[in-house]
Amino acid sequence: MGYVEDPGPGYGSVAPRAAFGSDAPSLSLAGTWRFHLSPSLTAAPPDVADPGFDDSSWDELPVPSLWQLHGHGKPAYTNVHYPFPVDPPHVPSENPTGDHRLRFDLPAGWPAGSSLLRFDGIDSCGRIWLNGTELGVTKGSRLPAEFEVGPLLKPRGNVLVVRVHQWSAGSYLEDQDMWWLSGIFRAVKLLARPDGGIGDHWIHAGYDHTTGLGTVRVETVPDAVLDIPSLGVAGHPAGEPLELPVEPWSAETPTLYEGTLSTVAERVPVRIGFRTVCIENGQLEVNGRRILLRGVNRHEHDPRTGRVVSRETALADVLLMKRHHVNAVRTSHYPPDPVFLELCDEYGLWVIDECDLETHGFGPLGWDRNPSSEPMWTDAYLDRMRRTVERDKNRPSVILWSLGNESHTGDNLARMAAWVRDRDPSRPVHYEGDHDCSYVDVHSRMYATPSEVERIGRRDDDNERRRDLPFILCEYAHAMGNGPGGLLEYRELFERYPNCQGGFVWEWIDHGLAAPGHFAYGGDFGELLHDGNFVIDGLLFPDRTPSPGLTEFAKIIEPVRIDADSSGIRVSNHYDFADTGHLTFTWVLEEEGIAVTQGVLDVPTVQSGQSVSVPLPSLPVTSGESWLTVSASLTSGTAWAPAGHVVGWGQLPVSPAPARALPSPRGPVFRTSGGLILGAGEFDPATGTLTTLGGHPVRGPRLGVWRATTDNDRGSSPGPSEASQWLAAGLHRMQHRVIAVDADGDELLVRTRVAPPAQPFGLFADYTWTAFDGGLRLRVDVTPDGEFPGTLPRLGLAMALPGTFGSAEWFGRGPGEAYPDSRQAARIGRFSSSVDGLQTPYVYPQENGNRTDVRWARLTNPDGTGLRIDGDPAFDFTARRWTSAALEAARHTDELESGSLVHVTLDVAHHGLGTAACGPGVLPAYRLVPRKTSFALSFRPVAGGVAN
């Protein structure tokens, strides 16, 4: 069996060790390499390792990179299925093979003796030669490998050759939900290793919360000494425990002590975070306190470079997480670039560090021949775990080791857990696939429903070991497209049950790849086997723009919560450790969304887990609907946000909208040769449909129930999807039958029945129009007729306005979109936007942009003329330049073309979002079932920004 199909971990590399830098000489080998792609190993040049091989005709390729993103082959995406026959450990003979060659010189003064050649990531198998001598083979794509090269180096003209195979036996262990991409995609470095230097080290830095003392001890070479200047430590023998008072490290207060570990030959800078992780009384604790994981799953992704992620991009992720109150990361499903964990140490994030392991593609095959249970894979499993732990053992941010993901169960996983527990008893072991929790330390689940989480929180479980463990959702709230909905219910459960310690939203970022005019997903590159846009399921869009889902998540997990109570204002501190002394509380009173007055709120310091009530500030009397918004913001800037950054806010109603008497009707209805006239409106005499208002042409409004389906509407977990039921019922093609148009008297009554073809059920819709000074009032009475088979997407009106009505202003919830089960982040206020700006550009187009609890809205021309709509009392609205049918048909954003109209929906209700793309559907409280409904709206033309 050749090395490509050998299930072992490779050969030739030195023992794994921690990732660190030192003052020893190093040389980055990143840059432009020569590259040649062959369709198979047999077609690859046989003498490529010869230093004299002529590669002058080859292409150039940057390293790090993934060759499919540079025009060599094409990306492919699958979630579960292997894109090759499942015949372990064999892979196809047609195995794209990329030869990489680099000529390099050593810097002047490079020391003789030992040097290591380090690769931080090669996907999926690399065979390496230096100056014609084979160094070895590495597998484990997201794991480092180092080779001794000191005797082979020469001052000038070194030739490094790396042959990379797209497929190898290791590919069976790397079936993560992501793009299949190949190459040398992380750093390549040459590291001089001085005699008497520090080959490896392990910093043990615990914290005793009862005494406030930290203890530090470093496993390393015998003669190393430790210096920590800020603690007054100088020349301390590194291997001897040292106890001293310290500030502990946590995700909220990531205190790191800078120091140096040194011998006479080498100095290694260290950053020490004192903290202790344990499981006590069935709860995961750090530094003696229960923590709540407000986390995300993070794949490494850049829309242009794939899994080649720069430090700047990794930092952008960390800053976005901190600014949106995320406090934890699961490194799904492999160890990230070491730089990311350094940033987690520095800025403060709890980390579940996950091994590079997933064999999900065996699941549809009944887990037959799954490597987790096959002895021939044992060495590979243990090697991957060993390299993970050894690389990242010095990271205080890492609080749990994870064996991998979706690899079922088996002896190899149990052996990994046993090895970890023996090597590092200071961190618990995680793995969701051990459903009986026989070899893990935490109970972990994916996509459990709120009712299941509640059962676990009550410890209602016959499995005694599992019942007594802390519980986390390693994946939940699948953030695909418009959603996730139902986050609030999970938070409430995490706070109600101490053993339920939070979870990790799936996932951080959409994996869209940059393409002309849009972002690409599975199938866009001609793959015959793919999983479509299932790779577009993040809280960030591919360009790292936060989605509404991230805004909602941030609001729900905000560490400071502000509510009304009987004493005035209640401020609750939901930090795990920090008090509120670093925050300033301000308030603003708004009347119909316009600021009236503002001030600073005097709030005493609130300890973590505590609440305090303070009285309302002195407020002036207002005549319109008024709200008090109280915000908690950073008093001083931090490493991750400037002063003034808001970490929590709440709204309190101050005065309701004044009661509005129904306007006196201004009839009667006039009949003309061309139609019906009522007040400022003209109507079609046959259909009773409004055609003109205040001189502006309009179409509608007419009853509508359809929305362009979301990814979650199309999700089918469990059972048939909502979208499939709506389509089967014909809700996307409802037809309108006019029963009567009664134009006698002071009002216009239009009776209709709205129903899908081929179905007996429908909705009676009666429209009653009356005129008042300056406008029209419409009351709509909806009555179901017959038995509907399920839910409705939405219920309301649809109308079209001139395309010049490109500006929107409204008083209601905003500034962003909101839906029944995803609305916590929308506050009451007055907002404005262009119609184009109302859209949320989901990579896969779908329903979006709904503004909710709207009291009134204006849609206007550039000159300020247009239309105002008032609710009685409120409504939802969308406005877009294409129809819902066009939105439904589009597969990429650049397929949406602006038309000559602005299409508006005015809704009384929406079906929720849920997370059925992968997880629970819409919870009962947010399901829209047909029932008798009445609602009313007023329409007025606007002249120069003022309603007539």
Give a quick set of tags describing it.
948 residues; globular; 13-stranded antiparallel β-sheet; mainly beta; 11 helices; 11% helix; 8-stranded parallel β-sheet
Structure overview:
This protein is mostly beta strands and 948 residues long. It is 11% helix and 36% strand. It contains 11 helices and 60 strands. Strands 48, 49, 50, 51, 52, 53, 54, 55, 56, 57, 58, 59 and 60 form a 13-stranded antiparallel sheet that branches. An 8-stranded parallel sheet has the order 30-29-28-27-26-33-32-31. It has a 7-stranded antiparallel sheet with strand order 1-10-9-12-6-3-4, with no helix packed on it. Helix 3 packs parallel to helix 4 and helix 5 runs parallel beside helix 7. It is globular. The model has no long low-confidence stretch (mean pLDDT 97).
The biggest sheet, with number of strands, parallel, antiparallel or mixed sense and barrel status, is: 13 strands, antiparallel
Overall, the morphology is globular
Structural class: mainly beta
How much beta, percentage-wise? 35-45%
Instruction: Give Rg in angstroms.
Output: 32 Å
Q: Helical proportion?
A: 10-25%
Number of strands: 60
How far the N terminus sits from the C terminus, by CA atoms, comes to 84 Å
Query: How much is the average pLDDT?
Result: 97
- List the uncertain runs: none
Tally of separate helices: 11
